Amino acid sequence: MFLFHRDRKYQKDGKKQRGFVKGMALMLAFSCVLVTACKKVEDHFPTLPTTSATEETSASESQGPDFSDLDLEITIASPLSNETCQYLAKLYVAKSQGLLGEGVTGDTVDLALLDSIDLPFVLKVYSTAETGCNLQTLQQWQKSGSMPDIFLTDSFDQVVSSGMAQSVSRYCSDDPLFSADRIYPQMLSEFFVKGDQYGIPFQTSAVVLFCDMEVLGFADISAVNFRQSRNSLDAILSSLKELNEDKMEVLPFYMASDMLMYLPCAMYSNEYLHASSEDDRANDAFTDSVSYITSLIQKEYAYESLNEEQEKELFDGLSPLLSRKVGVWVGSTDELLRYDNYMPYTLSMMQLPGYNEDEYTPPLLISYPLCISESCENPDEVSAFASFIALDEDALLLTSRLQPREGFLPSVSQPAVWKSVTDRQKYGIYLSLYRDMMYQAIYIPAVSESENFASDMKYVTSHMEALFNLEEDD
Fold first, then answer.
1. Where residue 173 falls among pLDDT bands split at 50, 70, 90?
2. What percent of the chain has pLDDT over 90?
3. How far apart are CA 470 and CA 474, in angstroms?
4. Parts of the chain belonging to CATH 3.40.190.10
5. Tens digits of per-residue pLDDT, 122-158?
6. Does CATH place domain 59-205+367-422 in 3.40.190.10?
7. Which of 51, 241, 428, 443 can bridge 422 by disulfide, Cβ–Cβ 3.0-4.6 Å?
């Protein structure tokens, strides 16, 4: 559901249509996911358990399921290594049996203690991409008879609609790990379908503007503010364009149209999300975003404005984003390692631009869930273990300690977890900025082959065509 990987959304590195009119046509192709990408928020969040003022939500006092009567084998498919998963399982048993000791956390527990614990079940681990597995991979596992019990997925809607995942509502509804004072309700609501919960929030990435400070340095820009407005971003792009007076040296912005699926949310937040009819959706949020992106192309800041000769002069067949000639581009933080491999000392990040100077726009987040497969024979016990891995504070601390992963935010609000997760990441200083804004976040699902998606695509297409015709008449 939630993967916006550049290579899967669309192929960017092939030949593009040239000129402004063709560039705007290209924008239309990308805009097909806009309305669905800015998912309309339901009026009511799912009911979450709450904790009293004196009740601790830490799982150190919780009791896990009794495995003694089960000949249980659990398979899990995720980016976590076999070693990390085995230690998490041992931590799960240790906490359920009260073996950790007072004051011991996932950050401080002696691994030797965990090594001494015998698991009451067999745990098998499948390796996936950083954002999980898609429907095709799951179908292959299912066909081969090796379907995992727990899996991380980037294709939530497809997984649920195809019947690959089962509802976990009856197993998670009373679990204190889902209490409203420790988990983000809107994030959890993304994984409810027709009133039933099918996903457990595991990790989250953010949509950002990446920039290569080496390229910006050519224009004497030594640093950038994470908080960007239209004016400040325009100033950066204008300075980069000045480098091209004699010949093409750099590309200020790669694919300005990439912002079209995000800007209405970033600029107008919930006002746009609550639009429920075509008339409501044809509002300032959408039309203004189109006009802004149009202006960037008209100013020749963006890839859409390049002609074939300019493209060849700049890139000569190289991938633009890996050419070290692009100043700014849109991406999500789960792609950090990809870009860091090519620009390990000069990669930086900025928010999508807002209207006002020196203010944060709402975080635009992509959340990835753990799901329980429909074929799982012990969903109660397996759901409890999956919830522990995803949401227990000590489990998250231990995971961060054993296997820090670049570009992802935690799905719980505990300060200790946020500090551990962000402190151990190379780009964690940027990610830590999101902690105080999580309750204002907008979640962006990638919906595929659904009726809502088809309806939204039809609307956006007709609206864009009408807008283009109006501009041509003017």
1. confident
2. 57
3. 6
4. 17-42+206-364+459-473, 59-205+367-422
5. 999 999 999 999 899 999 999 999 999 999 999 898 8
6. yes
7. 428
